[in-house]
Structure formats: C-alpha cells, structure tokens
Amino acid sequence: MILVIEVDTGLETCKIFAILKGMALKIIEYGSPEYEQMLALRENILRKPLGLRFEPIDLANENHDILIGAFEEDDILGCCMLIEENPSIVRLRQMAVYNEKQGKGIGRALMNFAENVARDRGYKLLNMHARKNAIGFYEKMGYQVTSEEFLEVTIPHVVMEKKL
Ligand SMILES: CC(C)(COP(=O)(O)OP(=O)(O)OC[C@H]1O[C@@H](n2cnc3c(N)ncnc32)[C@H](O)[C@@H]1OP(=O)(O)O)[C@@H](O)C(=O)NCCC(=O)NCCS
Questions:
Q1: Which residues form the pocket of ligand 1, taking CB atoms under 6 Å from any ligand atom?
Q2: What ligand 1 atom has the least distance to the C-alpha of 128?
Q3: What is the pTM of this model?
Q4: pLDDT, one tens digit for every residue, the chain (164 residues)
Q5: Which of 7, 30, 50, 77 is deepest in the core (most CB within 10 A)?
Q6: DSSP letters along 128-164, please?
Q7: What share of the chain is helix, strand, coil (3-state, %, to 5)?
Q8: What structural domains and CATH numbers belong to the chain?
C-alpha cells in the first residue's frame, strides 16, 4: 500500500509518499537540516569509500536541483537528486542508501518517486552516470546502458537512460 499526500508549501505542491513501515519520501529544501543529513549520507556512502570528499564548489549550484530523501521519522535513509540537462532531459545523481538499510526496497522507492517528480515537471527522459557496480540495480528499474565505460570519481561508470 502506498499513500500519496499532497502538501501545498505555498511555493509548489510537494508530494509525500508515505509507504509501509513509516518511510516518507520527500523533496528536501536546499540548506535545511534535512539537506545537512543528505550531505552526510552522500559523503559517507559515495565519497569516503573512494578517499574523496565534497568541496564547497561541488555543492554551490544545488539550490537549482531537485533534492530527494527517504526518511524514517526524522532520520534520512537514502537520497538522490535530479538535475535539469534541458527542458526534456533530467539527470539523476547521488543515489545512495545507508549500508545497513540497503536491500530493503529504499532505492527502488527513491527511483519511483524521482521518476514521478520528473514526469510531473514535464521531462521526457531520465539518465544517469551509473557506477558499474550499480548497473544491475538500474537495469531492474528499466534503464539501459547507452555508452561505453568511462572513469568518474576514479571508478568505472556508464551512461544509462529510460524514457519517462
Ligand atoms: C545502489 C543502491 C542505491 C540500491 O539501493 P537499495 O535500497 O539497496 O536497492 P533496493 O533494495 O531497492 O533494490 C531494488 C532491486 O535492485 C537490486 N539491487 C540493488 N542493488 C543492486 C546492485 N548493486 N546490483 C544489482 N542489483 C541490485 C535488488 O536486489 C532489488 O532487486 P529485487 O527487486 O529483484 O529484489 C544502494 O545499494 C547504494 O546506495 N549503493 C552504494 C552507492 C551506489 O553505488 N550508488 C549508485 C551510484 S550510481
């Protein structure tokens, strides 16, 4: 069972999907305490294992992006973000779920939510630079590889995409 709640924030209508076990998916405001939790998660799961960290310049433009988090109570479990490439195409970045929460359907829920948000905003195609070890996850979500392998943040990636 998935319950969809629409909250009018005054700026835009934000959908919150309340899923079984109390998990909530929502759009995060740039600079908010939830955004700080998102940054800690991304640093922990996507950067530290590679011996890298975010620099302020990496984050400076994120106020233009759609920031998405999965929460249990007030705690973030997973996140991702959407960046406009052009009015038809949007790119997913920074998909991450805390290690101990992986394999429980949180990544799938984030992906479904991100696709719905992208569709609502009129995008026709969603793509990503997928880490090689996550290709199987995105394939399960219906994405296809559309590039040769290339290196990004020191590890192999491919472009994957799906029509919305
Ligand atoms: C990739 C990631 C976001 C997936 O999130 P998750 O919550 O663990 O995924 P889910 O539990 O929703 O899995 C959905 C399906 O994908 C499969 N899956 C998950 N991760 C997979 C992987 N790395 N390779 C192949 N299949 C995978 C699951 O088995 C599940 O399949 P099922 O529905 O047939 O049971 C998460 O494992 C993660 O944060 N990994 C580390 C960071 C990372 O690599 N991010 C991607 C950057 S491009």
A1: 45-46, 95-97, 102-108, 130-131, 133-134, 136-137, 140
A2: 48
A3: 0.91
A4: 455 555 554 444 455 554 546 799 999 999 999 999 999 999 999 999 999 999 988 899 999 999 999 999 999 999 999 999 999 999 999 999 999 999 999 999 999 999 999 999 999 999 999 999 999 999 999 999 999 999 999 999 999 999 99
A5: 77
A6: EEEEGGGHHHHHHTT-EE-S--EEETTEEEEEEEEE-
A7: 35, 40, 25
A8: 2-163 (3.40.630.30)
